[in-house]
Write a structure and sequence with these properties.
The chain has 376 residues and is of the alpha+beta class. It folds into 2 domains: 238 residues, 3-Layer(aba) Sandwich (Aspartate Aminotransferase, domain 2), CATH 3.40.640; 125 residues, Aspartate Aminotransferase, domain 1 (Alpha-Beta Complex). Helix content is 41%, strand content 14%. It contains 14 helices and 15 strands. A 4-stranded mixed sheet has the order 1-10-9-6. A 3-stranded parallel sheet has the order 4-2-5, with helices on both faces. α2 runs parallel beside α9. The longest helix is centred in the last third of the chain and has 19 residues. The structure holds pyridoxal-5'-phosphate.
């Protein structure tokens, strides 16, 4: 089977986890602190706060901004469902924005129109707490455009950088364009801790709040322990952080291999019925996924194509989720097909091809041949 994703786990990773387990110190200790320092150094910010996964990271980022019932957060329509769920879990309303057809990232023109409408009355303007662009599949959103629009009304940006550790735009790292950024270390990302997440920020107060919120509301500096707010247990374990440290050392290598594999796919797909993804000028894409578009005529057969490919030992997957038309968000807010026409088209035709560090050009050739044969 040519798998969709294979994490790059090697002997040093196994040893590091073993050593952490053998130490007897299993939860949020020196390895977590060291992992946080490594991520902060890479992004170039003073604070990185490790949490159990990126969904927790996004949840805490919004809570730290005091997102609460009655508020509004503006978010791309096309992402993994947690980007919208966390808004709803804070009691706020996600206002969705359609995406760009080529990069699958939030469309800045639509974002501007959405914010103009929301900010046009004082009553609705005071409810707008954050904008959440997503760096879809590892390519950064047009953050110059997003920042320009958000600066006009001084709205905080929370980057959903779940897929984008190591990505950059115009030489500036993902995580450096916002009030806070959230990263994932799920096994389908370039590097993994099994489950794992991180919030990064320049802001001392927000970092402190997130450190308290992830640990039952405990003041991170108080001794004896004191609890200054109701909080969660969203901590990372020491053995996950030990893995995070060995994985961080491989990040550049893994991203390099994924970029080379993406270039192989670009070549294989050129002139075929499958449309390769487009990279923006100035974007350093990290290819968390390589997502091509099926021709519109094959959209209704995607499930069949995925099953057929699996029967031929090639694992593929749909891209990500058209969040507004999932059962929950459709039922709650009445979204329907046609409200987000670009997301409708992308979500119906996106197909993720196998991509991981050790995939060979021959395996990629087989994967493309199998999919093209099924597309017909
Ligand atoms: C864009 C995006 N946001 C958030 C998440 C949630 O990350 P996690 O699985 O670490 O909670 C994911 C996970 O795939 C994602 O792709």
């Amino acid at each position: 089977m040519i798998r969709l994703a294979v994490p790059s786990i090697e002997e040093d990773d196994l040893l590091a986890v073993r050593e952490a387990l053998a130490s007897g110190h299993l939860v949020q200790g020196p390895r977590v602190a060291a992992f946080e320092r490594e991520v902060a150094k890479l992004i170039g910010v003073p604070h990185a706060v490790a949490v159990s996964n990126c969904t927790c990271a996004l949840h805490l980022a919004l809570l730290a901004l005091d997102v609460k019932p009655g508020d509004v957060c503006v978010v791309t329509a096309y992402s993994w469902i947690s980007t919208a769920n966390v808004i709803e879990l804070c009691g706020a309303r996600p206002v969705f924005v359609d995406v760009d057809p080529e990069t699958f990232n939030i469309d800045v023109g639509h974002l501007e129109k959405t914010l103009e409408a929301l900010m046009s009355s004082a009553e609705s303007a005071r409810r707008v707490k954050a904008v959440l662009p997503v760096h879809t599949f590892g390519q950064m959103a047009d953050m110059r455009g997003v920042s320009d629009v958000c600066e006009r009304w001084d709205i905080p940006i929370v980057e959903d950088a779940a897929c984008a550790l190591g990505a950059a735009l115009h030489g500036r790292q993902a995580g450096r364009w916002s009030t806070m950024a959230c990263f994932s270390f799920h096994p389908r990302k370039a590097i993994t801790t099994g489950e794992g997440g991180m919030v990064t920020t320049n802001d001392d107060t927000l970092a402190r709040r997130i450190r308290a919120l992830r640990n039952h509301g405990q003041d991170p500096d108080a001794s004896p322990p004191d609890f200054v707010m109701p909080g969660y247990n969203y901590r990372l374990t020491e053995f996950q952080a030990a893995l995070g440290l060995t994985q961080m050392a491989k990040l550049e290598r893994v991203i390099g291999a994924r970029r080379r594999a993406a270039a192989v796919y670009d070549g294989l797909l050129a002139g075929t019925a499958l449309q390769p993804p487009r990279t923006l000028a100035g974007a350093d894409h990290v290819y968390q996924s390589y997502v091509a578009l099926l021709p519109a005529r094959a959209a209704g057969r995607r499930r069949e194509i995925i099953a057929g490919a699996k029967a031929a030992d090639v694992e593929t997957q749909l891209g990500t989720i058209h969040m507004p038309v999932t059962t929950f968000f459709r039922g709650r807010y009445g979204h329907r097909a046609g409200d987000f026409p670009v997301t409708d088209a992308v979500a119906a035709t996106a197909l993720a091809l196998p991509l991981y560090e050790s995939i060979t050009p021959e395996e990629q050739c087989t994967a493309v041949d199998v999919v093209l044969g099924l597309v017909g």
